[in-house]
Write a structure and sequence with these properties.
single chain, 424 residues, alpha+beta, Nucleotidyltransferase, domain 5, 6-stranded mixed β-sheet, 5-stranded mixed β-sheet, 14 helices, globular
């Protein structure tokens, strides 16, 4: 099915952690557009990351995105700069721009750089028209003005990348369309979309007769990144000197500033610590550090831009905890070695506040729809963080495990957006 213009219908899921694009062109249901992956393979999604390499004798500053960016960063031996979770800056009034190798970038510029790379890597012409997903509530959006700012910035970034006919759609509603495409009967469904930065919920009547009739939406600005931050707080930060002190001339002992670790707990803030001001501060701290080894490790993490491999270690720990009750966090790089036991029970306790907030958002969605828990036929759980056992358990405790379904957690939103585009 094509849209009314006759062009292929496109849906873009620009996520905090992963991004993908899907198409409906008359040859069947929505399908994900393949993108370059590792070692010459293709993949249905890219990590939402950017790599910037400094200018050299060979040419000007170079940028790359997605899977190629990860490969370029790994090959740079620390000379490149990696940016992650750039979507999380969209709502922030305080984030105006950042400087990368002497060049100033707004958040719109960064996202446009990523989208241009996505366009160039696509095997099909993406044109200038598409349906784009958005969370019910952007990460960090405390007011309607914050949310409006995020939408305006995203629209500007899309225009800079050559997309000027844009329709925004809630990500859980898009997931509802993807789920509806597989049904031969009508259902009342709670769509639970757990991303990297937000968790969004919609109560939707779906099926071949109803299509997708949205009854309510709700959302909360936390999900996978917030889970990661709990691992950082409990395992990584203490090994990097959190809670320690350093000697200050004439003043005795002073605490190592906590804001260093507040930045560390968000991957997209880690690169912001790589500044002259932070370098000078850490030089003063390490001269009198009680936990000199921990501070030395922190300096290595910042100087060597170890956010990506640290994130990989956290992800590996979460995956292991999905399959077993006990595992070990392990990270070993030159200058930084962290090893600690982690239990599923411990992890579940760390993320308990997030689980409570998620449960409250489900309450809000049901109340806004005027639907009781027992009236929900299925809960369609999608997004990478839906695979966390504690998240599934939270849903199962309310709705029963037999009503929880999932599948294609990283690409269902893009497929649903393309299905929506086909109906425009």
């Amino acid at each position: 099915m094509r849209n009314q213009s006759g062009a292929p219908a496109l849906g873009l899921d620009f996520g905090t952690t992963n991004s993908s694009i899907a198409i409906v062109d008359g040859s069947g249901p929505a399908r994900v557009v393949p993108l370059p992956g590792r070692d010459g393979a293709t993949t249905g999604h890219w990590r939402t990351v950017l790599c910037f390499e400094p200018a050299s004798d060979e040419g000007p500053m170079r940028s790359s995105a997605g899977a190629p960016a990860i490969e370029r960063f790994a090959a740079s031996e620390g000379s490149a700069r990696l940016l992650q979770s750039i979507k999380s800056h969209l709502a922030s009034a305080s984030f105006v721009d950042t400087v990368i190798f002497g060049r100033k970038f707004r958040v719109e510029d960064l996202i446009a750089t990523y989208l241009r790379a996505l366009r160039a890597s696509s095997p099909i012409d993406l044109g200038n028209k598409l349906v784009v997903g958005r969370p019910v509530r952007y990460w960090g959006a405390d007011t309607q003005a914050d949310d409006d700012r995020a939408v305006a910035r995203m629209r500007s970034a899309l225009a800079l990348a050559g997309f000027d006919e844009i329709t925004f759609a809630y990500e859980p509603v898009a997931a509802a369309h993807a789920y509806a495409a597989r049904l031969d009967h009508d259902e009342v469904v709670l769509i639970a979309d757990f991303g990297g930065g937000t968790s969004d919920f919609s109560v939707v009547e779906v099926g071949p007769r109803k299509g997708a009739n949205v009854l309510s939406n709700s959302g909360v600005g936390l999900a996978g990144d917030a889970f990661d931050s709990r691992v950082v707080d409990a395992v990584i930060a203490p090994a990097l000197g959190k809670g320690s002190r350093y000697r200050v001339e004439m003043s005795g002992l002073a605490p190592v500033p906590s804001w260093l670790y507040n930045n560390l707990r968000r991957w997209h803030h880690l690169s912001l610590l790589k500044s002259g001001e932070t370098t000078r501060l850490l030089a003063r701290i390490i001269d009198g550090a009680v936990d000199r080894h921990g501070i030395e490790q922190l300096i290595h993490v910042i100087d060597d831009d170890l956010g990506l491999p640290l994130h990989g270690a956290v992800e590996a720990t979460k995956v292991a905890l999905s399959n077993t009750g006990d595992t070990a966090f392990a990270f070993d790089r030159p200058g930084v070695r962290i090893a600690a036991p982690v239990t599923r029970a411990g992890f579940d306790g760390w993320i308990a506040p997030e689980l409570e907030a998620i449960d409250a958002a489900v309450d809000e969605a049901l109340a806004a729809a005027g639907v009781e828990t027992g009236a929900i036929d299925r809960v369609f759980a999608t997004g990478g963080s839906s695979l966390v056992p504690a998240v599934r358990a939270t849903l199962a405790a309310r709705f029963g495990a037999e009503r929880i379904v999932g599948g294609e957690e990283l690409t269902s939103v893009a497929a649903g957006l393309a299905e929506m585009a086909a109906r425009l």
